[in-house]
User: What shape does this take?
Amino acid sequence: MVKQTAGRDALNDFAPKFAELNDDVLFGEVWSREDKLSLKLRSIVTMTALISKGIVDNSLMYHLTTAKKNGVTRTEMAEILTHLAFYAGWPNAWAAFRMAKEVYAEEAEAGAEEHGGFFGMGEPNVSYAKYFIGQSYLKPLTDPKETVFIANVTFEPGCRNNWHIHHADKGGGQLLICVDGEGWYQEEGKPAQSLKPGDVVTIPPEVKHWHGAKKDCWFSHLAVEVPGENTSNEWCEPVTDQEYQQL
Assistant: This one.
């Protein structure tokens, strides 16, 4: 349940009923209906409404900050505001961008040194972006032509890859060695497994699964490709927001 006290903190002496409706109904009931709509989507809808009305005051700053907490990544925020500019007005988008830069400034300043663990974050995972929801980064650690392929994969908060399967006629599969942050791993038909640094996941071939970050935390793991015969990856459907938000 979403907890809010801003109404009572600011207006309880002057307008107690308004304060009650703000804290208990708007946030305590409407925002808490995560079974109907995820917090991330509610944040996006709310930002859209405020920016469309030209409301770029402290209330927008609050909802931009909340959106970040609810899993809207810096990359997603930039794309949302760019899209909104064409519908809500260019000046409104400019004003919102100034606030968004402030909200995400700490993250931007942190840079790669603060994410990816000991191995670093690497570069945006452009080649496989279509198989991910959210932004991921890839840092290869070995040359697959010379040895077993190992790469450090970093997920922004809320980022996860699609369901997929590692095929092989013999051998094959993958190992995940968690090195930074917190994430999820799930096999089809089984509960999701919470991951933290030091956890190791063995993924057999022919098992449908996905993995990624938790909604409020960066996550990095080493992906170790297990050698095998006639190995290949089959990418399947995305992990829906409803599936993900229920974890």
